[in-house]
Each structure stands twice: as C-alpha cells, then as structure tokens.
Amino acid sequence: MKSDSRHRLSEQRFKAAVEVIDGVLWTNNAAGEMVGVQEAWGALTGQSFEEYNGYGWAKAVHEEDAQPTIDAWQKAVDEKRPFVFEHRLRVYDGTLRLFSVRAVPMFDADGKILEWVGVHLDITDERALQQKLARIAQQLSLSLDAGQTGTWEADLVTGKYLWDERMFGLWGIAGPDAPSLEETYAYIHPSDRDHVARERQKLRDPDGPGVLDVEFRLTRASDGDVRWLTVRGQAQETTVAARTVVGIARDITDRKRREQQIQFLMGELNHRTKNILAVVQAIARQTARNAPSLDRFSEDFDQRIAAMAGSLDLLIKENWSSASMLDLVRLQTSPVMGEDGDRIKLTGDDIALLPEAAQNLGLALHELSTNAAKYGALSVPGGHIALGWWISEGVGANKTFSLVWKEHGGPLVTKPIRKGFGDTVMNRLVKASLSGDALLEFEPDGVKWSVNIPVSQILHGNHLSV
Q1: Model-level pTM?
Q2: Is the CB of residue 90 less than 8 Å from the CB of residue 41?
Q3: Other CB atoms within 10 Å distance of the CB of residue 410
Q4: pLDDT of residue 115
Q5: What pLDDT shows up at residue 463?
Q6: Residue 325: φ, ψ to 5°
C-alpha cells in the first residue's frame, strides 16, 4: 500500500474515532493559528472561514473563558506540549455548551512542529450529570449522618465486611479494616446473638427472600456503651452458592428508650388508674352508706370527686412526681377560707408531697373543711382554724411528718354517735395508705386532727422554698 494511501486511511480512522466519541476535530498551524477550511468547527460554531481564521475561533468562546483559553493555548504552543483545557463555547444555535479541549503537536522527522491536531468534546450533559450525582451523594451523606446510619457490604462466602466510616462510628471500632461477620458477634449483646445468627443464616438459603431485617443490642468497642441497632440488607444474587449482601445499619437507641419509657408510663398509668378507680369506688360506697337521700349523696359525692380531681391536677402539673403542700392546702380549703383568707391560719414550710400522700391528705383536708363549714368553727362568725405541719428532728427514716388541724371559736363539740365518711378518710385511709398514725378528737372547744407519718411515705426530695 502506498504511503499516501496509508496516510489517508489513518486519517479516516482518526476522524471516525473522533465521530464515535461525538467530538469535533480541528487543526492549527505550527504557530497555533487556525488556518484552512475547518468544516467541523464551522458546523459546530456557525462561524465562517473569515470569522474563525487565525485566532478568530476565540470569538466563539464565552467572554469570561476566551482570554484564559488563549493564554493557556499560547503557553502550550510555546512549550510544544499537549494542550488540555475546558471552556464554554457558543455553538451554532446561540446556546452555550461546556467542552473539554485536547490538542497535541505533530512533529516531523527533525522534531519540528508541523501542525496541531485538536478535538472539542461536548461534556455539558456529562458535567451536569456529575454535578447532579454529586448533589445526590451529598444529600445522601447528610441524610445518613442525620439518621446515624452506616452502609455496609458483606461477602457471605469469605465472611468479609466492607464498611463506610459511619459503621465504624456506630460500633466504636477504629478502621480501616472492618471485622469479619463472625468477629462482630463478640460485640453483640449475648441475649441477642442467637436471634441475629438465625436471621443471618436465612440469607444463605438460595430459595429464601434474601432479606435481612434485625434489631439487636451491641456493646460499643470504644466506650462500652450499649446501643440498639437496626440492620437491614438485601442479598445480591451471584451464584446459587454465593451471595453478596448490601445494607444499612442505624442507631435506634433513642427510639428504643422512648418505647421503654412509653411502656413504663403505660404501666404507671394502668396502676394509677386502678388506684384512682379504687378510691372513687370507696368514696361512692362510703358516701352512699351515710347519705340520708339521693340528692345528698349526689351533692357530697360530686364535692369529694372534685376535691380528688383538684389534687390530681396539682400532680399532673409536676408530671405526677409531687405536689406542693401549700398549694394542696389552699386548694382544699379555699371554699371556706374566707374573703380575707384569715379564717384558716397556716403554719409550716412548703414541702413536696409524694402522689399518694397528696391524694389522701387532699381528701382529708376537704372533709375537715366541709365539716368545719357545716358544723364546726367555720359555721359561726369569729370561728377559725389553726393548721400547722412540720418535720420532726431525726436522721433519714427516723424523721416524721406531723400535721395538726385544730378548730377554735365554734359551737360546743360533742362526739358523734356513728362514724361517717370523714372518719374513714381521716383515720383508716391515712393509716392504711401512708403507714402513719392519725387521731381525730372531738374536744369541746373544737375538733382536732393529728397526724404523724414517716417522712419516707410523704416527702418527695427536699423542702420547697416557702
């Protein structure tokens, strides 16, 4: 084959290769100037020969990229080295496209440059796709970080793991090598290992769904902290005997703690509801036993339930942890305290009452107030009540909460013939519920109710400020 025939064939092959990669071929002279007819360039940019001749091609380049392109191109020409660049180019329809530019010098036998051969490759769509994928990857990374989620890949044949950096953080293990499938069992809580092993074994079943979905506790290697993880994976079928599994692991410790808290609260709610219903049932039974009529029963029962509800409101405000003694006293005695609040004289520091104590003392104070308003010191002008409480000296469990209700200036008191609901609340209920001693005395100058209760049965934490 003649030399010129081989040259033409080589040139045809080169042009065909450029077309395959969707490129635009061009040539420049040894000085880097575009000379001669450049059909592909003209078709790409819409420039005529007169427009692109010499350095006229630069007018098709975006104005911000034109001079940097010329400078870089001239440097490559001067140094006789390949040219690699990117710039925006205004094509024939007026739109801007991003191009990757590559050019190499062609030398003769003496090492002199004959010409430059270059190609423009449109990378607009590719770059847009890269940027989109980068944004997706960034969003995914942020989502995984926010969700405390790591990604992993496991080879069920070799037992090897590939972990991302989040997985090492979840397990508290320093990289770069992840532990094997078997080695991870050392970190899994002993109570959960068999369950995890059974779920993993299902992945080896060629007829199985190839899905792993398991929750377990692990002891983190770095600090010994026990954490809950949910691990999910999907087997990628390779052969009947071999599978690769890819998946995620997420820290669900906070969720598990919330679930445990909810379960605890539900248990507490169930327990407290039963206790409240039992008290309501006792109030109804005792009220009915002593009521002379249905109307009287309804009135007394409503008042007692309202008194009980008021105590519960105080507890709810403090998340059922305690209730203020002063708030409880003022709540239960407010209907009879008088306009100036001087008919009941209070003495005592404010303390935080336990829920059981608040409920029972609340009922007792309601009964005392009601009876005082109907029959006792508050039923006549000038009568008043002294109500005081204190904590006795002592250490720990030896301390005692004492309370005295004493009426003054009322009608002459005589001991009732039969015991009513007040006796049940003020004596038996307080004794049974609070393990204390209560004494209701009908002294001639006024009713007196004395209570002594172990501090452990009544006091929540430290004294509140007055």
Answers
A1: 0.49
A2: no
A3: 20
A4: 93
A5: 45
A6: -60, -45
Q: Return all residues near 153 (Cβ < 8 A) that are at least 6 apart.
A: 161, 162, 244, 245, 246, 247
Nearest to 117 by CA among 240, 9, 209, 34: 34
Nearest in space to 422 (alpha carbons), one of 460, 352, 375 = 375
User: What size, in residues, is the chain?
Assistant: 466
Give the residue from 465, 459, 463, 466 showing the smallest Cα distance to 321. 459
Q: How far is it, in rounded angstroms, from Cα 419 to Cα 427?
A: 11
- 219 CB burial (10 A radius; 0-12, 13-18, 19+): middle
User: Which amino acid, 338?
Assistant: G
pLDDT at 144: 66
Q: Three-state SS across the chain?
A: CCHHHHHHHHHHHHHHHHHHCCEEEEEEECCCCECCCCHHHHHHHCCCHHHHCECHHHHHECHHHHHHHHHHHHHHHHHCCCEEEEEEEECCCCCEEEEEEEEEEEECCCCCEEEEEEEEEECHHHHHHHHHHHHHHHHHHHHHHHCCEEEEEEECCCCCEEECHHHHHHHCCCCCCCCCCCHHHHCECCCCHHHHHHHHHHCCCCCCCCEEEEEEEEECCCCCCEEEEEEEEEEEECCCCCEEEEEEEEECHHHHHHHHHHHHHHHHHHHHHHHHHHHHHHHHHHHHHHCCCHHHHHHHHHHHHHHHHHHHHHHHHCCCCCEEHHHHHHHHHHHHCCCCCCCEEEECCCCEECHHHHHHHHHHHHHHHHHHHHCCHHHCCCCEEEEEEEECCCCHHHCEEEEEEEEECCCCCCCCCCCCHHHHHHHHHHHHHHCCEEEEEEECCEEEEEEEEEHHHHECCCCCCC
Other Cβ atoms closer than 10 A to 376: 23
According to the model, what pLDDT value does residue 240 have?
Answer: 46
| Averages of pLDDT over each 10 residues, the chain, 466 residues | 50 47 84 92 94 94 96 95 95 94 92 92 89 76 72 81 86 84 86 90 79 90 89 73 78 88 77 73 75 81 81 80 90 78 88 88 88 90 92 75 93 78 68 84 91 86 44
